[in-house]
Specification:
CATH topology of the largest domain: Phosphatidylinositol Transfer Protein Sec14p
Strand content: 5-15%
Radius of gyration: 21 Å
Helix content: 40-55%
Number of helices: 17
Largest sheet: 5 strands, mixed
CATH architecture of the largest domain: 3-Layer(aba) Sandwich
Shape: globular
Length: about 350
């Protein structure tokens, strides 16, 4: 899966073995999009089916030329995620791919030993799950419930690991690459003690991954049951949000009718005024845990020692944390005030 051999290979001269003798054959890409989604991808993402593989090859060539030591997967299907996330802008897709690897290597607490079985306690708690039904736009609903997390049992980074693996699983589907996702976050019962774990350092890291380091389109973030303390939480988050993303946040409070204007009750569980039955986390947990071998294969070939990275990709977590210390003290005062 690693593309290093592709990036270092020279063009064969006359009489030399053929190109295919040096490189294992990649899986052949077969489009799984419906005709309607092909049309949607053309209109919204500037994806032209007749040029799709040419565009993928262009991105692959850029990776090999500019980042020969990146150690990334170069399969068509993998690179296509990044092109779609940046509407087939080669330069922006390349930067997203580099950021994807940089984020993974700069936060070892989150990305070391990252596999579904390692975050099983988080999955069993119900902190994050995916609702079984798509919304009218064909988007998955990722449901996050911070009240299910007990800080005494495991650190906040375990929750981030669970969210990341959930997104990795979802983005494997081409439908999700085109349609994007919707987040539903229920802040019922979030206390000051929990909120204090989400300081500027963690906020900057998480927002950086979701905005600039992961090939997924977040179309809406619906917040419900947010307590007064959420004003402080959002104050931490907002400085790191791009305006486009900030405008996709919808705060509903306890007003389920307001939520239903964004997500129809027919796909929501009873807990949120819907008609789709009780919220069941078991189906998603089973699906994610059954993907263990896939993640082991994919991630084992994406992670490389920091010594092999281009210098511009290296990020000092200590430096970032130090820069956030003063902000954290100020934000804590604001959290106490809101609480």
């Amino acid at each position: 899966m690693s593309g290093d051999s592709d990036c270092t290979r020279t063009t064969p001269s006359a009489g030399s073995p053929s190109d295919t003798e040096f490189t294992p054959a990649r899986p052949k890409y077969v489009c799984s999009l419906s005709p309607d989604l092909v049309t949607k991808a053309r209109e919204e993402l500037q994806e032209k089916p007749e040029w799709r593989l040419r565009d993928v090859q262009a991105l692959r060539d850029m990776v090999c030329k500019d980042y020969p030591s990146l150690g990334t997967c170069l399969d068509d299907a993998f690179l296509l995620r990044f092109l779609r996330a940046r509407k087939f802008d080669y330069d922006r897709a390349l930067q997203l791919l580099v950021n994807y690897h940089s984020c993974r290597r700069s936060w070892p607490e989150v990305f070391s030993n990252l596999r579904p079985s390692a975050i099983k306690p988080v999955l069993e708690s119900g902190f994050v799950t995916v609702l079984p039904h798509h919304d009218p736009e064909g988007r998955h609903i990722v449901c996050i419930r911070p009240d299910r997390w007990s800080p005494s049992q495991y650190p906040i980074t375990e929750n981030i690991r669970a969210i990341y693996l959930t997104l990795e699983k979802l983005i494997q589907a081409e439908e999700t690459q085109v349609n994007g996702i919707v987040i539903l976050a229920d802040y019922k019962g979030v206390s000051l003690s929990k909120a204090s774990h989400f300081g500027p350092f963690v906020a900057k890291k998480v927002i950086g991954i979701l905005q600039d380091g992961f090939p997924i389109r977040i179309k809406a973030v619906n917040i419900i049951n947010e307590p007064r303390i959420f004003k402080g939480i959002f104050a931490i988050i907002k400085p790191f949000l791009k305006e486009k993303i900030a405008n996709r946040f919808f705060l509903h409070g306890c007003d389920l009718n307001s939520l239903h204007q964004n997500i129809p009750p027919t796909i929501l569980p009873e807990e949120y005024g819907g008609t789709a039955g009780k919220l069941d986390i078991s189906a998603w947990n089973e699906l994610l845990l059954a993907s263990e071998e896939d993640f082991l294969h994919d991630f084992s070939q994406l992670v490389l020692p920091c010594e092999s990275l281009p210098q511009e990709m290296l990020v000092s977590g200590d430096a970032e944390e130090k820069q956030c210390d003063d902000s954290l003290r100020g934000m804590k005062a604001q959290l106490y005030y809101c609480y």
